[in-house]
C-alpha cells in the first residue's frame, strides 16, 4: 500500500486507503453467499471505543467497505472517542469517510476504578437498543478494554455472533482477564501470533474458528514509509528537530496498582527532563488513574517545558511516521512492544503492564522502574539505536485473510459455541472434601525394567510410590498399569489427595494429542501402536496425558527444576539410553511427526560403534549405559577391567558402574572409554547449541555427574564463541520421569500452556 504525504487531510488519506483495499485480490466465494441464503450480504457491526482500537479496526473497515457486494458495514462509536479531554477522536473516523451510525456516550468521568465499572454498566444499558435497531449478523470487537467487554456481553446475550480481534495474547494487568473473558464470549477469533493461537486452543476454543491472520495495523505499518515524514516531525516537535533525535513517550495507568504506576510516571518524566531531548508526550488513556497522571504532567510543567510537546491525540498515519523515525519510544503502551517493532525503533518498556507480550529485540524491559537512574540508564542504552525490523505480529496481509474468514461464516450454523475440552469420561461433583484435598496427579513411568506409579502433589512431592517389574507382553503390562493406577487412586483418598488426571511417561515415539505410543524402543517389547489414553480414562474416569520420557524429563525441569522460568533450554537424559526434551519459548517441541528431541541419535562419528537404532556413531552408541556396559564387558573378557581395590562375584553381571569404578581407581583404559563417551556427548551438545541456541543445558540421569565436566570442556573447545556462555548443569530432581508425567497433568489442569 502506498502512503501519500500524511500532511494532507485525513479524508484524502482515507480515500487512498479505500483504493488500496478495492485493489485487494477478491476471491468471489459465491457458494458461501448462496449457503447463507439468496446472496445475503453479511451485515457487520464494527464498534470502536478509543484511538488505539481504531488503528487496528480501521484497516478491516476499509476492507469491508471496499467490497459492498459481500458486506454491509455499520459503525458504532463509544467510549473515549467522544470525550474532548481525549481528543474527540471520533472525528478521525469521519475524516476517513466512514458513516457513524451511532454515537454512544458511555464514559462516566472520574478516572478511578468505580468510574470504569459504572462506564461498563452505562454501556450495557445503552447498547441493547442500538443492536436491536442494527440487527447485525456479526459484531467485530477488538482487544481487552472494559468498553469492549460491555460490547461482547451485550452481543452474546442478544444472540449476535462475535468476532474477537487479538485474543489469546498475554500482558500484565486486568486487561488479561478482560481479554480472556471476551474470548469466552466470542464465536470467532482472529489472533496475531502463533503463541496467541496456542493460548486460545489451550483455553478450549474451537480450532476451526480461530484465524491466525496477524495484526491488521501491520497492513498499514509495513507500507508506511513516507518521503515527507520531516513535515510531520516538524509539525509535532518543532522546526529544529532531526530524525532519530527525539523521543515519543506514551504511558498509561496500571489499574491493578495505580499508586505505583503514577509514581513510575513521575520518575519517567524526571528522567526525560534530565535526558534533555525533545520529547512528544501523549496523554494517557481513560483508565482509572489517568487523571492523576495528567496532574503529574501539569505539576512538572510538561505542557510548557521547551523540550516537551504534550498532546491528547496524534492521527495514526502521522503517529506511524513519528515512531518510525524516533530515537526511542518509552512507556508501557502495547504499541511500543507490538507496532514499533515493525520499524526497528528502540523501545523502553516500563513496569508490568506488558509482561508476557512477545517482543522483538528492539525492546528493553525495565520491569521494576522504581528509580529515576534506572530509567535514565535505559535511555542512554537505547536512544539512537537502530534494530532489525520485526514481523512478530504480522506480515502485512491480515485484512485479506480476515475478509476471507468473514465470507466463510455460515449463518445457518448453530449459534451456540462449542468448547474443545480435553477428554474425560465422567465428571466428579465438587464438594467441600475436594476443596480441602491436595490437588495431585497420578504419574506413571514405563521403563525398560520397572513399571512405577506415584501420587505427586502440586508442589512436586511424591506422596506415595508403587513399583513392579515391567511385564514382557502388552496384555500383562496394560493389566498391571490399570491395577496399580486403581490402587493408587484409592489410596489417594486416604492420604487426602485429589487426583486431577493421569500422566504417563514412556519410552519410544508418542503422539501426545491422541495418547498413542507409535513406536517403542527395543527395551520395551510389544509396545507399538498402543492407545493408552482410552482404556485408562475409561477405567479411572480421569483425563489421561501421554508423552515420551525425554519430553517428560524436560517438563519436570520446567515445572520443578533448573528450567523453571527459563525460556529456552534442553534436557539430556543419560541413563540406559540417551534421550531428552527441548523447550523453546517456554513450549515443549514435539516436531511434525512427534520425533523431535531424539538427542541420543545425533551422529557424532560416521564410522563409530553400531547403535540400537541401526545407525553408527550415535551419541547413544558411545555414552549410554548400554554402551558403557558393552565396553566394560570387552575389558573384562580381556582381563583388563579389574584393578587393585575392585572385586566381582563370579555370577555378578558386568555393568557400566564397574567401568566407572575402575576409572576412578586408575584404570587408564576405562578412563579413556569414559573420556571418549564424554567427548561424544559433548559434541552432540555442541550440535544442539548451534541448532537451538538454548541458554541452559540440563544433564539428567545416573551418568550426568560423570559427564558434566567433559561436556563443558568440549563446548569450550568446539562451540562457536556466541554459544559458549551456555550454562550446563546437572539436574537436582530425584525422579524426573515421574515428576514430568505429573506435570503433564498439573500444567494442563491448572491452565498452564502445554
TrEMBL record:
Transmembrane segments: none
GO cellular component, one term: cytosol
InterPro entries: ATPase_NBD, ROK, UDP-GlcNAc_Epase, UDP_GlcNAc_Epimerase_2_dom
Family matches, as Gene3D superfamilies: 3.30.420.40, Glycogen Phosphorylase B
Places the protein is found: Cytoplasm, Cytosol
Pathway annotation from the record: Amino-sugar metabolism; N-acetylneuraminate biosynthesis
Main location, first listed in the record: cytoplasm
UniProt subunit comment: Homodimer. Homotetramer. Homohexamer. The hexameric form exhibits both enzyme activities, whereas the dimeric form only catalyzes the phosphorylation of N-acyl-D-mannosamine.
Protein name from the UniProt record: Bifunctional UDP-N-acetylglucosamine 2-epimerase/N-acetylmannosamine kinase
Amino acid at each position: 500500500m502506498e502512503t501519500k504525504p500524511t500532511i494532507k487531510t485525513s479524508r484524502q488519506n482515507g480515500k487512498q486507503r479505500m483504493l488500496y483495499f478495492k485493489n485487494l485480490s477478491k476471491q468471489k466465494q459465491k457458494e458461501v453467499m448462496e449457503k447463507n441464503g439468496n446472496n445475503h450480504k453479511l451485515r457487520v457491526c464494527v464498534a470502536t471505543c478509543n484511538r488505539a482500537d481504531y488503528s487496528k479496526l480501521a484497516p478491516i473497515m476499509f476492507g469491508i467497505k471496499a467490497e459492498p457486494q459481500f458486506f454491509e458495514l455499520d459503525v458504532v462509536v463509544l467510549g473515549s472517542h467522544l470525550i474532548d479531554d481525549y481528543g474527540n477522536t471520533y472525528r478521525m473516523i469521519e475524516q476517513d469517510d466512514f458513516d457513524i451510525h451511532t454515537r454512544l456516550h458511555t464514559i462516566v468521568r472520574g478516572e478511578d476504578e468505580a468510574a470504569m465499572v459504572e462506564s461498563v454498566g452505562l454501556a450495557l444499558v445503552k447498547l441493547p437498543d442500538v443492536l436491536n435497531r442494527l440487527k447485525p449478523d456479526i459484531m467485530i470487537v477488538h482487544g481487552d478494554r472494559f468498553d469492549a467487554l460491555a460490547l461482547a456481553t451485550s452481543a452474546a446475550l442478544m444472540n449476535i455472533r462475535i468476532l474477537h480481534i487479538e485474543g489469546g495474547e498475554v500482558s500484565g494487568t486486568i486487561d488479561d482477564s478482560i481479554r480472556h473473558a471476551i474470548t469466552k464470549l466470542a464465536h470467532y477469533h482472529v489472533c496475531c501470533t502463533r503463541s496467541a493461537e496456542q493460548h486460545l486452543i489451550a483455553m478450549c476454543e474451537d480450532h476451526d474458528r480461530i484465524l491466525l491472520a496477524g495484526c491488521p495495523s501491520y497492513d498499514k505499518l509495513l507500507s508506511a514509509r513516507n518521503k515527507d515524514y520531516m513535515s510531520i516531525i516538524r509539525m509535532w516537535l518543532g522546526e529544529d528537530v532531526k530524525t532519530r533525535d527525539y523521543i515519543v513517550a506514551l504511558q498509561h495507568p496500571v489499574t491493578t496498582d495505580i499508586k505505583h504506576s503514577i509514581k513510575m510516571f513521575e520518575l519517567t518524566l524526571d528522567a526525560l527532563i534530565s535526558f534533555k531531548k525533545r520529547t512528544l508526550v501523549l496523554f494517557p488513556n481513560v483508565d482509572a488513574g489517568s487523571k492523576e497522571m495528567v496532574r503529574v504532567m501539569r505539576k512538572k510543567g510538561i505542557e510548557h517545558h521547551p523540550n516537551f510537546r504534550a498532546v491528547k491525540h496524534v492521527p495514526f498515519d502521522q503517529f506511524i511516521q513519528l515512531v518510525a523515525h524516533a530515537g526511542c519510544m518509552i512507556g508501557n503502551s502495547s504499541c511500543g512492544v507490538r507496532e514499533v517493532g515493525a520499524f526497528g525503533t528502540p523501545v523502553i518498556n516500563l513496569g508490568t503492564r506488558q509482561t508476557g507480550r512477545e517482543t522483538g529485540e528492539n525492546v528493553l524491559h525495565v520491569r521494576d522502574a522504581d528509580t529515576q537512574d534506572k530509567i535514565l540508564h535505559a535511555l542512554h542504552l537505547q536512544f539512537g539505536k537502530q534494530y532489525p525490523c520485526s514481523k512478530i505480529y504480522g506480515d502485512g496481509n491480515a485484512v485479506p485473510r480476515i475478509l476471507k474468514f468473514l465470507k466463510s461464516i455460515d449463518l445457518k450454523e448453530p449459534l451456540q459455541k462449542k468448547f474443545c475440552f480435553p477428554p474425560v469420561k465422567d465428571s466428579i461433583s465438587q464438594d467441600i472434601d475436594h476443596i480441602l484435598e491436595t490437588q495431585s496427579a497420578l504419574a506413571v513411568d514405563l521403563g525398560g525394567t520397572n513399571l512405577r506409579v506415584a501420587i505427586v502433589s502440586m508442589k512436586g512431592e511424591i506422596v506415595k510410590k508403587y513399583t513392579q517389574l515391567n511385564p514382557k507382553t502388552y496384555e500383562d503390562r496394560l493389566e498391571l498399569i490399570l491395577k496399580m493406577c486403581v490402587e493408587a487412586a484409592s489410596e489417594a483418598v486416604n492420604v487426602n489427595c485429589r487426583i486431577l488426571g493421569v500422566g504417563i511417561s514412556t519410552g519410544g515415539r508418542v503422539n501426545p494429542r491422541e495418547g498413542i505410543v507409535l513406536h517403542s524402543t527395543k527395551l520395551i517389547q510389544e509396545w507399538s501402536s498402543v492407545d493408552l489414553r482410552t482404556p485408562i480414562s475409561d477405567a479411572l474416569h480421569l483425563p489421561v496425558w501421554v508423552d515420551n520420557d525425554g519430553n517428560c524429563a524436560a517438563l519436570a525441569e520446567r515445572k520443578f527444576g533448573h528450567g523453571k522460568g527459563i525460556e529456552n533450554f534442553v534436557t539430556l537424559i543419560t541413563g540406559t539410553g540417551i534421550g531428552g526434551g527441548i523447550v523453546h519459548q517456554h513450549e515443549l517441541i514435539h516436531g511434525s511427526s512427534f520425533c523431535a528431541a531424539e538427542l541420543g541419535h545425533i551422529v557424532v562419528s560416521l564410522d563409530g560403534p553400531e547403535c540400537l537404532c541401526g545407525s553408527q556413531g550415535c551419541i547413544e552408541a558411545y555414552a549410554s549405559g548400554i554402551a558403557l556396559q558393552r565396553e566394560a564387558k570387552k575389558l573384562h573378557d580381556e582381563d583388563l577391567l579389574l584393578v587393585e581395590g575392585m572385586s566381582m562375584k563370579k555370577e555378578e553381571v558386568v555393568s557400566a558402574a564397574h567401568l566407572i569404578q575402575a576409572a576412578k581407581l586408575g584404570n587408564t583404559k576405562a578412563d579413556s572409554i569414559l573420556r571418549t563417551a564424554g567427548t561424544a556427548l559433548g559434541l552432540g551438545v555442541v550440535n544442539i547449541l548451534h541448532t537451538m541456541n538454548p541458554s541452559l543445558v540440563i544433564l539428567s540421569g545416573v551418568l550426568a555427574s560423570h559427564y558434566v565436566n567433559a561436556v563443558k570442556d568440549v563446548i569450550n573447545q568446539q562451540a562457536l564463541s556466541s554459544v559458549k556462555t551456555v550454562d550446563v548443569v546437572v539436574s537436582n530432581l530425584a525422579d524426573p520421569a515421574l515428576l514430568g508425567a505429573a506435570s503433564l497433568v498439573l500444567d494442563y489442569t491448572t491452565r498452564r500452556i502445554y
